[in-house]
Amino acid sequence: MNLTPEFEAVSRPATHFVFLEARGPFAETAAPLWKALPPLLPGIEPPAILEFLGLSGMDKEKSGDEAMIYQAGVSLTMEPTGLPGAMKYRLVPAGRYARFVLTGSYTQIGQAFDFAFKTLGEKQTALRPEFCVENYLNDPRTTPEAELKTELLIPIA
Question: Are 45 and 80 in contact (CB under 8 A)?
Answer without folding.
Answer: yes
